[in-house]
Amino acid sequence: MPDWNPQAVLGLARNFMESRILLTGAELDLFTLVDGKSLSAKEINERIDGNLRGLTILLDALAAMGLLVKSEGKYTCEPSAAPFLNARSPASVLPMLLHAANLWHRWSNLTALAGGERPAVGQDSWISSFIGAMHAIAAPQAPHIVSLVDPGPARKLIDIGGASGTYTIAFLQASPEMTATLFDRPPVVEMARQRLAEAGLLDRVTLVPSDFYMDPLPGGHDLAFLSAIIHQNSPEQNVDLFRKTFSALEPGGRIVVRDHVLSPDRTQPKSGAIFAVNMLTGTSGGNSYTYEEISSALTEAGFTRVSLTHEDSLMDGLVEAFKPS
After folding, report:
1. Residue 54, phi-psi category: left (phi > 0), alpha (psi -120 to 50), beta (remainder)
2. How would residue 7 be classed by pLDDT, with cut points 50, 70 and 90?
3. 177: helix, coil or strand?
4. Which of 154, 202, 230, 310 is the 20 to 30 A CA-CA neighbour of 182?
């Protein structure tokens, strides 16, 4: 009998991501294009007349998967994979990949075929399922992440985009003298209210139903936590959010960003490069970012003493910075 656990089930659910990345590479015939050549994303984009942002994210994911090799900003087909991916090779399996891409579209109708037509999922239902999923992922690792953050003498936390309060709860449990502000959209704040009440911590939290894209953040905090937020933003949006966070902190206050933190060539960790494709398909400007990009945005917003305090493996990279005293 299989020995299932939450990570195994979630891994099975996400298997489609690498498959879709491979199939898109095949549909664009990228492997034929770069077999025996070393081309930049811009050069490849000119040849396919594509979208440079989307193509670059795709190429980095293919490199992270080991199907392309990236060196000095240029891509070539991985030599051992090239015979099977080049359309001109006698050993090419590209026709089968293109057939699989056609099957992808047919299989997208499986739920309707097996269960009948389902009504469209409403916004409230989508938010509830998304926030629930974020809690299921975060709850097991939150105490460990908080221990890595090490709140120390911090006494007033602001959890920006704090969802249903998973990390707020972990911080308050780790620091009995701490109070917190949880800032998120109104429907999400109501989910947080229930979870915080169940944890017996509601009296230590100020709930602020608002939108950090539109509204300022309340001030007076000495620790700001942004967990899995920056990947949904464009670089410009992150600078704007960091500036708002800067204003929400007291002099000497600290910001801690938890997210994927990519290597300089954007191909490691593999999970971060693949997650960037998720942001490509689901946002207008989101991405996974390198430490250098995060550090630059924090510095532009006014922060100093920026450092990477924990290397990323599974969206557990931690970057901290300080508001000057």
Report:
1. alpha
2. confident
3. coil
4. 310
